[in-house]
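Moderator note: this is an archived Q&A kept for reference. The question asked for a predicted structure of one protein chain; the sequence and the answer are reproduced below.
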Amino acid sequence: MKKLLTFLMSMSMTLVLAGCGNGAGNTATTSNTASTPEVKPQSASVAAVESVETKEKATDGELTELNVAYMPNYASLWHLLTGIDKGYFEEEGLKINLIEFADGPSEIAAMEGGSVDVAYIGHGAHRLAINGSADIIAPSSVHNTDKIIVLTSKGIEDIKDLKGKKVAYNAGSSSETALNGALASAGLTMDDIDPYEMDATNMVAAMMSGSVDACTAWNPYDSQILDNVKDAKQIEFSTDSVNLSSFIALPSYVEKNHDLLVRFNRALFKAMQFAAKEENWDYAVGLYAKQTAKDEEAAKVETGDAKWFSEDDIKKGVEDGSMADLYKQQQQMFIDSGDVEKERPVDEYVKFDLIKEALK
């Protein structure tokens, strides 16, 4: 009996030790082989974006992946698609995953969630950068005019006719900035209208149904409204504001990935040098139309929306200080409108050191 008990106790201890050994081995194996899921490029919505960390440790022959947020318009894609198609990003060891969003604030939220590394933003979202939510890593373009879409059947023929009307806008984006500019040009304020805050994608349905009388939207949504609403009319207006678009990243990401973003900018600037030239617009438009499944002739109209910065423009602007002046003017506009509380040194959030290094 004693021999039997001794044997059974011995077997029991052996099995326990074996079990502990296998458990530790399995844990180590799982840890070493776990892979991060890939964010698929050309995602149709924010909801389709999976939470992913960019691969930071590219070995020889591997490409470092960057998840880049864009909006489905020419202003957001003319340089990115050129750089991808011509292999400029690949030359820098980068693979660009494009992820579509409707507006800048949504892009910044996705960056904070870890699914986006770099994003293109329009004018309105720059207030978030000024307030510290993001750093500007590269200028993109400057727009000299804004537009508002009205329904003539609601008795609107001019900006001044917006008084008392239902006007849709997207808060925190260039849509809200444009609306404020339009109202100011006619001596009006938000208190003089019936404002409706909504997502840019919902403005199309709202204008088609006539549930709102006017809206401030950007491409492609403004084109969809004009194409589908018989009495829709687009009114252009000029202000003293500076309507800039830029590329951004979170301050923490910029701090940890300086060299990576220099490589991104270097490829981006090379693409901008090519695609900013009018003789190359058809090339960039073709890429844009294919990406967004848009008619090329309709897409070509968007080339007149802004002054597209070339690498030479950025270099000159950085050297003579005119680029910093543009961002200062933009910031002052946000201060005047109450969207930014106090002045902040531009070089705190516009990363001119990173831009200069890429320009070398």
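Archived answer notes: The radius of gyration is 26 Å.
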